[in-house]
Design goal:
This protein has 152 residues and is an alpha/beta fold. It contains five helices and nine strands. Strands 5-4-3-8-9 form a five-stranded mixed sheet. Strands 1-2 form a two-stranded antiparallel ribbon. A two-stranded antiparallel sheet has the order 6-7. The two termini are 28 Å apart.
């Protein structure tokens, strides 16, 4: 099954770096930007997280919840969040089940090597719980601005 705009967003409950459980169902009524990224503290992922951080007040003005997801553990997320003063939660999807549900986890290739990991994809989930937009293989530095410009 391929996710597309208009489909119900796969529901999930994941812990953030502090151990708080974030339930997508509890965010119904709000727009959610759910972005998947490969690893904490890597160059591209840092650029992407800082891009969301730098635009965070604009997302708040539009009443949009921003959530980052990777397979890193809570300790890694907390260090990354503190180091870069990220004002939004990073969720821990250690086994990749949520990323798999969002078609953002699987075989990747880098410098001739194959491995399993998270793809840099973003989903905008509407207040009704349906997918409003899908961004695949995004450019980390400018992605937050790209989403903000598309939000109505």
């Amino acid at each position: 099954m391929v996710l597309k705009v208009g489909d119900p967003a796969p529901v999930f409950s994941l812990p953030d770096g502090k151990g708080n459980i974030i339930h997508l169902a509890e965010l119904k009524g709000k727009r959610v930007v759910l972005y998947f990224y490969p690893r904490d503290n890597t160059p591209g992922c840092t650029k992407e997280a800082c891009s969301f951080r730098d635009s965070y007040s604009d997302f708040q003005e539009k009443d949009v919840v921003v959530l980052g997801v990777s397979t890193d553990d809570a300790k890694s997320h907390e260090k990354f969040t503190t180091k870069f003063a990220l004002p939004f939660p990073l969720l821990t999807d250690v086994d990749g089940q949520v990323a798999t549900a969002y078609e953002s986890y699987g075989l990747k290739k880098f410098m001739g090597k194959e491995y399993i990991g998270i793809s840099r994809n973003t989903f905008v989930i509407g207040p009704d719980g349906t997918i409003e937009a899908i961004y695949k293989k995004v450019k980390p530095e400018f992605h937050a601005k790209e989403i903000l410009e598309a939000l109505v």
